[in-house]
Amino acid sequence: MSPSIPLTDPLSVAWIQWCRNERKPVNTIARRISTLRYMPCAGTATREDVEAWWLTRAHLAASSRHNELANLRSFYRWAIRWEYRDDDPTLRLDSPRVDPGLPRPMTREDLHKVIDSMTNASDRRAVCLGAYAGLRISEVARLDWADVDLENRELRIMNSKGNKSRRVPISPMLLDALLPNTGGNVINGGETHDTQWLARRIRKAFRRAGLDATFHQLRHRYATMAYEATGDILAVSRLLGHANVKTTQIYVRTREDVARAIAMAVTA
């Protein structure tokens, strides 16, 4: 089924509206809508229906199947909570194991290359917020000057992923990249950016600079450098807005000084 087909299942539509009312992140809602479009009768589906649907998803990558099942389980938890259903038809399904892989932080050389190549100030601000503040692209897209505390040099990231808020310090270099204060959206001085639109702009900017990279690698860079500088995984986790420090561990590589000490020790 094409993901362009609108949702017709009444319970699915009600859940998506509830997600919007609860101010769930835009990307989260988009992924949930996509899953429900591929499972069009989720509201009335039996356990057998869901298990049969799950078999049709076997060709997908483990990460895609993991996300789809997580979305569907969130839907049924909501349906049970609000007494639309009294069962979870995903109960017997096992989520595939997803290898978190290794952190892929953007290198200093590549970061300077892309920044130097950018002629659009809005794109440059977005990249600097990812690299020097560790913001998600969705956070960058909606960052408003009202949430920039110039006196204390902090960004207030409000109601982000998991409805978590946090404060992120602003370095002098980042402040120079963001100023002047135009009011409104930090990136363009106007209305809030659409996340997908901004993501496409940044990908194009990376390609023009000759880089095969993603915006998320800027966040990986921030996390890795913050950890190498401090060795404080909890502080880095808070600055990134992670609910669990285990997530932060995926983002950071071993501190360089520790890695070198190990290399020397095992050959001593």
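That was protein one. Protein two is written in the same sequence-then-structure order:
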Amino acid sequence: MATFPAMSEAEQAYIQDNQPEGVPPLELTGERTLPDVPEENYWYRRHVAVYEWIAERCAGLRVVDLACGEGYGSDLLARRAAEVIGVDANPEAHEHARARYRRVNLRFQRGLVEDFDEQVDAAVFLQTIEHIHDPDRLLERIARSARVAYISTPNRLTLAPPGAEKSDNPWHLREYDQHQYRELLEPHFEQVELLGVFHARKLRAHELAIRFGWDRVHPALHLTKPFYDRFIPAISAGDFRLRPGDLDRSLDFVAVCDA
């Protein structure tokens, strides 16, 4: 599996570039991913790929984006959905999202995801269940409020070191393999389909290059920084693909949950 700098390595190091006038930039803390931080582009595009896939399935629907963070995902969903509500408890993220993303069918609500109780067609909850102290309580609420839920989490087998219970990300309380993730979700929903997020295109080529020794070559030739300074900002959402099968090798799990 190809590796990239983890978000935790960038904590306190980067602030968003080139924000629109009147929009306060956010700092990269490791708890959330951000656009407009070139060094973070791999993680940001990995999230965008999933939001875009879900947006295609939310045309004309009323959608809640739980733990929406900076707001970019809610904005992507609002391009297709009839209405989107972005919910996040962080005051800085909430103010940033309200100032930056403005559509007639998009609003942001500050609050805990556990307290959201409006009825919606679809709930989107990406890369956050691993942060939650009582995930069963939250999943029960999501199942009551939405007809379908899209819930994603990192695959522990490809995020954490071999044999470890979790990665070193301090914000993650628990990480899951595919079987543990099913055991968490299935008691709360009528049907759960799991898809995996995988590298595609240039990221798949990078994976193959590593398999054939690229990680030995670039340090020896002092190419590491020049190469990745160009490669990482060039990654797009098209360099990731969602598909079923081979889930132990996936980067993230995306669960489609019918209530």
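The domain at 7-258 is CATH 3.40.50.150 (Rossmann fold). Keep this in mind for the problem set.
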